[in-house]
Write a structure and sequence with these properties.
9 strands, two-stranded antiparallel ribbon, alpha+beta, Glutaredoxin, 5 helices, 209 residues, 7-stranded mixed beta sheet
């Protein structure tokens, strides 16, 4: 009986992940749309906007990698080191990472601002980690999961959106990094292909009105 009960729980957990991973995206940006800028508070207490962000060389960026992520989603946690490594590689190319935490802390206390500050310190984040206070930014982008990625060009036009790579669970098994591929296309003045993939992650926790 215990084994059956445990198996049922495992199936339920798997179903929950599948639903979160395959839920339809909300209305938001389409490829070719200009992304809205924002002013959000970072874990360092400073206010950030895309227009005010400089890349690692202190020059105006060639583009931006905006990711909606959090502390509590298992998929987001699996991607933390990958996001750090991505920023190290792409920021010096002119494509800095900007991370935004979209969850409502009332529903996910582990995603409140203090917890964000602690996690950024523990992991030594080298990119801005911003709080979408009031949950105003992620709906404009159309994000529905954590993590979910948006690659913008220097004019903040959306060129790629979706997953970072082709294996959410095992970084050692990744064969294709979609973001790095998109940047290569952009560096050659070409449209990224694919331009969209399905983001795999937990559903964003939205405050009920």
């Amino acid at each position: 009986m215990k084994r059956i009960f445990g198996f049922s729980l495992a199936l339920a957990a798997l179903a929950a992940v599948f639903i979160a991973a395959t839920a339809p995206a909300t209305d938001g940006l389409k490829i070719g749309d200009k992304a809205p800028d924002f002013k959000l508070k970072g874990v360092d207490g400073k206010t950030y906007s895309l227009a005010g962000i400089k890349d690692a060389n202190g020059k105006a960026p060639k583009g931006y990698i905006v990711t909606f992520t959090c502390n509590t989603c298992p998929f987001a946690v699996l991607y933390e080191d990958r996001i750090i490594a991505l920023n190290k590689k792409t920021s010096i190319m002119g494509y800095p990472v900007v991370a935004i935490q979209p969850n409502d802390p009332a529903l996910k206390p582990g995603d409140d601002f203090a917890a964000m500050q602690q996690r950024a310190k523990e992991k030594n984040f080298t990119f801005p980690y911003l709080f979408d206070d009031g949950q105003k930014v992620f709906p404009q982008y159309g994000a529905s999961r954590t993590p979910e990625f948006y690659v913008l060009d220097k004019d903040m036009v959306l060129r790629y959106t979706g997953a970072m790579d082709d294996n959410a669970e095992d970084p050692a098994a990744v064969k294709v990094n979609y973001i790095e591929m998109a940047i290569k296309y952009m560096e050659n003045n070409q449209a990224p292909n694919p331009a969209t993939t399905k983001a795999i992650g937990c559903s964003i926790k939205v405050k009920k009105s």
